[in-house]
Amino acid sequence: DRFWCRSDTAATVNYVDKEISDACLGGDALDIVNTGLKVFTKVTERGEVFYRPSEESLGFFDDFFTKRRLDIPITDFSNLIKNAEQHVAFDTLSPDLHKTLEGMAIGPAVVRVQTHEQIRMNIWVGKGSILPRVSKAMRGEVEDALNRCSEN
Hints:
Elements: E1 3-4, E2 12-15, H1 18-26, E3 37-45, E4 48-53, E5 69-72, H2 74-82, E6 88-89, H3 95-102, E7 107-113, E8 116-125, E9 129-133, H4 136-151
Parallel strand pairs: 5-7
Antiparallel strand pairs: 1-2, 2-3, 3-4, 6-9, 7-8, 8-9
GO molecular function, one term: RNA methyltransferase activity
């Protein structure tokens, strides 16, 4: 009811408030190209289709996105941010996180700092490694937030 795509083959899924969708669908033909919060982006990896949460939606769906969300130690999160442009091997992370990742299927996930859950980012869980999926702009914001946490 609240998730919309422009077409059946669209690569983006948006969340649209009921009032906005009612206005768009209930009146004269409106020329609206796009509206709402981009929540998922379609990703095809080796012929398999996944829907990765967008950076814009992080935190918005925390109560619904639970099976692929990990609360991790700040040291592991910092390691991922420092190596955000490359794959990070499972064995370079804490033993508990390593074990959890070994049991996860390949695909998108969200990591949050255990003691500061508002600090989060997308990752791609692969075979034996993680690829942080964070833009340069978001990386700067996350690094600043981590520094503030370390100061407290």
